[in-house]
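Example record

One chain of 246 residues, shown exactly as stored in the release files.
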Amino acid sequence: MQDNTMVLADPVPTLARRTYLRHAISHPLILLPLVAGVAFGIVLESAVLAVMAMFVVVIGAIVVSAHPRCRRALHEQLERERRRERIRRREAALEAASISGSELAELARLTCEVERIDPPIAQRFGLEDLLDLYVELAIARDRCRHTLGEIDGDELIRALRDTPDAGGLTALRRRLLEHRLRCRDECYATARRLDERIASLVELVRLLAQRASLPRTPGDEDAIERRLADLEREDDAFQEIALADR
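Predicted structure tokens for this chain:
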């Protein structure tokens, strides 16, 4: 099937003008003439030369910072920095919770593949946000498991069985044991739900990576069939002409 979807160029996002100017002035290609001009001004003891160099560099930075290509490059740089920071925060969160990062590493690798092959899919399904969600779910699941590991369910059941259903403090203790058992059951159910959510999230990322890696059919699939139909019509027309000439 031919993909007739029109691909539009991504518009350049907009930041504050001073942000573009600040990054343009801090670029080495802008800083080098500025430093050189000021240095020559100091060596030649010419304040005018130093001021002129600063003026020219600032004007050049203003012109460069207004160019769409410069702005796009700045946004790409900021996006890379933002992505590195998100990766660092995820890894630090898992490390602080003593959770293995092997599954997160797999998801990050698949996300990079999707972003490289088909950026619209990565943006549409918010893969970076899914990785953040994975970390949150993994930490919550680990807390549930830790809580369950601290509770001896069999001991609670034995204690509840051995506590008579009487009044006074005995009844209070029995109620507390019942609450602890319900809390344990709720924690277990929460852990099961988190397992399912994490498994579903992992499979979703894997599915998107598989879909992104599927090659698109080049060209028009009906091109050969149309040409064959044209050829057959021409043959039929030649045969009709030949019959008419007899």
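Notes: Residues 1-15 have pLDDT under 50 and may be disordered.
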